[in-house]
């Protein structure tokens, strides 16, 4: 009997395969297609012959954890005890799975805000929990009336992705205050804060759960180096949580992966001495602005993009096709691949929206925009 009977081939695989078949420009999957920082490559070349290829400690490489703790203090003012409040994971997705499967038991409900990243619900289902999908507003801001109405005595956790994939929106101070007001009434509810795009924000600063005094004692924060350092294939992420939560997660992590790739941890630990996350954000801001300006005169309507490296557009002035069919037609007829937003909803809400990834070379973005502007 399958634990995930309704899981089929992901839309990312479908669109990328179709893009390959038709030699389309692939703006669907969320990974950069430009070279890594030369400094990171030089560090990697130097380290590859050093004695760093055996197991690291289960919770993570101590030098990397100290660098993360220092960056967390610098960025958010939070002091993190690396021995009791941090865990290095095989990417943020493993961190999400570990968190959910540590705290969610059979019959527990987990609130997921739609449109949502596709790993949340399967993680809940494997744990025996019940996903409760709650739609965001039409402008992809949180609807706190819906969130509060979804809470029951069985609610164990709420998953909040900020900055938000797939929509590119980020939460405001008012949003956090609304959440705090609601959760004051429900002290049993834990928060999983997925903050993998924390260093890619544009219109306003990212507000992290690390800074929320009323919430951080009940929050597990998942972060990732794959997005911020554009090394998605290295699969190195980390969790930050109070000791009482972290001690339980380490038990699950130990028998899931035991320890994370040693070479990547060493290389990132050295690279954190030289990388400037403000420069990462500026680089993606330039790419966002380039892509927006290139397609501003097209028939696509640009949605707000506050953070991440995703741009959502509305195509209602172009076609009446549903978003999945239009995304396929965009590949086969026009040579550009995107992701339809309806696949991120439990009920396949279709508002004629597509997600483009602009973490690409300027040449790729220019070539894609030329095709999009001809539609």
Kindly list the characteristics that best describe this protein:
375 residues; alpha/beta; Aspartate Aminotransferase, domain 1; Aspartate Aminotransferase, domain 2; 7-stranded mixed beta sheet; 4-stranded antiparallel beta sheet; PyrdxlP-dep_Trfase_small; pyridoxal phosphate binding; PyrdxlP-dep_Trfase_major
Highest CATH level, the class of the largest domain:
Alpha Beta
Q: How do the SSEs run, as a string of H and E?
A: HEHHEHEHEHEHEEHEHHHEEHEEEH
Low-confidence stretches: none
- Rough outline: globular
Give the number of helices: 13
- The number of distinct structural domains comes to 2
Work out the number of β strands.
Answer: 13
* N-to-C CA distance: 46 Å
Organism: Flavobacterium terrae
Pfam families: Aminotran_1_2
Cofactor: pyridoxal 5'-phosphate
Keywords: Aminotransferase, Pyridoxal phosphate, Transferase
Brief description of this entry?
With 375 residues, the chain is of the alpha/beta class. 38% of the residues lie in helices and 15% in strands. It has a seven-stranded mixed β-sheet, with helices on both faces.
Protein described:
The chain is of the alpha/beta class. It has two domains: 11-30 and 277-373, Aspartate Aminotransferase, domain 1, CATH 3.90.1150.10; 54-271, Aspartate Aminotransferase, domain 2. Helices cover 38% and strands 15% of the residues. The protein has helices spanning 11-21, 38-47, 62-76, 92-103, 120-126, 144-150, 173-183, 225-228, 243-256, 262-271, 277-295, 323-334, 362-373; strands at residues 25-26, 86-89, 109-114, 130-135, 155-161, 190-194, 219-224, 237-240, 301-302, 310-314, 336-337, 339-340, 353-357. The strands form three sheets. It has a seven-stranded mixed beta sheet with strand order 2-8-7-6-5-3-4, sandwiched between helices. A four-stranded antiparallel beta sheet has the order 9-10-13-12. The protein has a two-stranded parallel ribbon with strand order 1-11. The longest helix is centred in the C-terminal third of the chain and has 19 residues, at 277-295. InterPro entries: Aminotransferase_I/II_large, Kynurenine-oxoglutarate_AT, PyrdxlP-dep_Trfase, PyrdxlP-dep_Trfase_major, PyrdxlP-dep_Trfase_small.
């Amino acid at each position: 009997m399958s634990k995930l009977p309704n899981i089929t081939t992901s839309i990312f695989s479908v669109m990328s395969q179709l893009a390959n078949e038709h030699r389309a420009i692939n703006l669907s999957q969320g990974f950069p297609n430009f070279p890594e920082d030369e400094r990171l490559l030089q560090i990697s070349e130097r380290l590859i012959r050093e004695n760093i290829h055996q197991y690291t400690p289960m919770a993570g490489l101590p030098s990397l954890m100290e660098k993360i703790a220092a960056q967390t203090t610098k960025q958010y003012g939070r002091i993190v005890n690396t021995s009791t409040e941090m865990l290095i994971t095989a990417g943020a997705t493993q961190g999400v799975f570990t968190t959910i499967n540590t705290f969610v038991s059979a019959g527990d409900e987990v609130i997921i805000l739609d449109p949502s990243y596709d790993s949340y619900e399967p993680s809940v289902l494997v744990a025996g929990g019940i996903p409760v999908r709650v739609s965001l507003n039409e402008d992809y801001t949180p609807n706190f009336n819906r969130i509060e109405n979804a809470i029951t005595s069985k609610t164990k956790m709420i998953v909040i992705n900020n900055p938000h994939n797939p929509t590119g929106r980020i939460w405001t101070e008012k949003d956090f205050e609304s959440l705090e007001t609601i959760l004051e009434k429900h002290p049993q509810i834990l928060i999983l804060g997925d903050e993998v795009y924390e260093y890619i924000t544009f219109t306003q600063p990212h507000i992290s759960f690390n800074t929320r005094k009323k919430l951080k004692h009940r929050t597990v924060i998942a972060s990732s180096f794959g997005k911020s350092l554009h090394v998605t294939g290295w699969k190195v992420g980390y969790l930050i949580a109070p000791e009482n939560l972290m001690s339980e997660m380490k038990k699950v992590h130990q028998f899931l992966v035991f320890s994370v790739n040693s070479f990547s941890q060493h290389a990132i630990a050295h690279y954190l001495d030289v990388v400037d996350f403000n420069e990462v954000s500026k680089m993606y801001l330039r790419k966002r602005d380039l892509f927006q300006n290139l397609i501003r005169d097209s028939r696509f309507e640009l949605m707000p993009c506050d953070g991440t490296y995703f741009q959502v557009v509305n195509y209602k002035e172009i076609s009446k096709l549903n978003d999945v069919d239009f995304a396929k037609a965009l590949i086969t007829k026009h040579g550009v691949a995107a992701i339809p937003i309806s696949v991120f909803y439990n009920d396949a809400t279709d508002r004629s929206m597509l997600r483009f990834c602009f973490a690409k070379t300027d040449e790729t973005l220019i070539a894609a925009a030329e095709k999009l502007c001809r539609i």
